[in-house]
Amino acid sequence: MRPVAGAKARERAFICTASHGLATPLMAVTANCDVLEAEESDQAGLASWVANIRPAADEMATRIADMLMHMGGD
């Protein structure tokens, strides 16, 4: 049973590390989306870019949160 427990612990550590590692760049992407959305009225061409970026960033945030929740992380 030790090999299984060890593998599970390594998997948990990897998922926690990966999700935390993804959270920082994701926050940068979503913060930039917020800025672009706030300035949309000035630059109409930005709307299509934000429309592509925002759903992907939101999905990524959901997946990271799900990984952390399933692993019992923060």
Supply the key terms:
74 residues; mainly alpha; 2 helices; rod-shaped
Largest sheet report: none
Shape: rod-shaped
Cα-atom Rg, whole angstroms? Answer: 17 Å
State the distance separating the first and last CA atoms.
Answer: 27 Å
Structural classification: mainly alpha
Number of helices: 2
* DSSP strand content: under 5%
Q: What's the count of strands?
A: 0
Q: Residue-averaged pLDDT, rounded?
A: 79
Helix content: over 70%
- List unreliable stretches of 5+ residues: none
What is the string of helix and strand elements?
Answer: HH
Notes on the protein architecture:
With 74 residues, the protein is mainly α. 85% of the residues lie in helices and 0% in strands. It contains two helices and no strands. The protein has helices spanning 2-38, 46-71. The chain is rod-shaped, with a radius of gyration of 17 Å. The model has no long low-confidence stretch (mean pLDDT 79).
